[in-house]
Amino acid sequence: MAEAAQAVEPQNWGPRGTAGVSFAASLEFDDICVELGGRPVLDNFRLSLRPGEIVCLLGESGSGKSTALRVAAGIQPVSAGALRINGELMSAPGRTVTPDRRGIGLMFQDYALFPHLSVLQNVLYGLKRLGRTAALEQARVSLRRVGLAGRENDYPHQLSGGQQQRLALARSVAPRPGLLLLDEPFSSLDARLRETVRDETLAVLRETNATSLVVTHDPEEAMIMGDRVALLRQGRIAQIGTAAEIYSRPVDLAAARFLSPLGEIETAVRAGMAETPLGPVPAPDFADGARVTVAIRPVGGARIAAQGPGIPGRIVSRRDAIGIDLFEVKLDGLDVPLGIRQPADGALRLGQDVSVVLNLEHVLVFGRD
Ligand SMILES: Nc1ncnc2c1ncn2[C@@H]1O[C@H](COP(=O)(O)OP(=O)(O)OP(=O)(O)O)[C@@H](O)[C@H]1O
Hints:
The chain is of the alpha+beta class. It has two domains: 3-248, Rossmann fold (3-Layer(aba) Sandwich), CATH 3.40.50; 261-367, CATH 2.40.50.140. The protein is built from nine helices and 21 strands. The protein has helices spanning 3-8, 65-73, 119-124, 132-145, 161-173, 191-208, 219-225, 243-248, 253-259, and strands spanning 27-36, 39-49, 54-59, 80-85, 88-92, 95-96, 104-107, 179-183, 211-216, 228-233, 236-241, 263-270, 273-276, 279-282, 291-296, 302-305, 311-321, 324-331, 338-343, 353-358, 363-367. A hairpin with a 2-residue loop joins β5 and β6 (95-96). α4 packs across α5 (161-173) and α5 (161-173) runs parallel beside α6 (191-208). The protein is globular and about 75 Å long. Bound molecules: adenosine-5'-triphosphate. Residues 36-37, 41, 59, 61-67, 217 line the site of adenosine-5'-triphosphate. Adenosine-5'-triphosphate is lined by residues 36-37, 41, 59, 61-67, 217.
């Protein structure tokens, strides 16, 4: 991949609203089981996507995300359950309809671009069912939309990493599939480019109206892209909901830890309050004496000031991240310093005594066994 070209790539996507429109399909995983190497990888996996919906499948490495996508694509057979696209049975034990008969578009690492075909030929490849004129027109609509109209005769190796990604997108949406399956579509791009490509890809997905299942291990990416986010753990959905639901009410401590870093305080509940060195935290769902973990998000969970009300603490570490300060604050009664991120403030220095105030909106309480 051309690293230098990535860094200087202009942001010249085609005009928004010009991608071809698909007839969105529904997708249903109905108690799917897959075993690989004698181990269950998908374990009664259930998930339904409504037509036009974008769902992000989020999970740790090895949780089964790619396997779920491969089942939807028809590359991975199932040992139990059923997969339906638009209500039509596509996968069941002993039956796997091939990928080309599913009406799907794929953006997978292992369905990479054809290196020996030109940019235009790469897109035409998926349009063989159309007549030459219609295929050319549809391919050019897609290439224009991703800003590659002038590169038709180039070969993939002549494109930057970001442009290759755009070509992969153009190729997958050109046949106007009802369902798009995307596996870690931006993982090969550097951070700055990833944001542009992700935002434009999201715009294209919205324009085409194709139902989309996007696999990612990046919580921020999932929360930005997904109408809903499905959290996968050991081959099962641990939680599903909108980004706001998942973020504000993670199902358990493990889910919360996966979504953001946390400061954790182990304590007990008394009269509906979890007692912490930072003051009491409401825990109305827990009985008296229940052992809980209070989890404080570095962003928004607590804030520090040089003066004013709050619990006394001392800054033991400070890093500057372009407009944001990353602090570690030592507090009496806490073994580990508390991580806090907040807008940069020149008045707050290493070693300084500060007052710390909790923002209960970003503080979570979980039960402990
Ligand atoms: N062909 C195979 N044979 C045996 N085990 C496999 C095979 N393919 C995948 N696995 C195992 O299945 C589990 C799930 O793999 P999968 O690729 O679906 O996970 P993932 O969530 O997509 O992970 P990643 O984010 O690392 O890609 C892993 O533990 C993996 O080692």
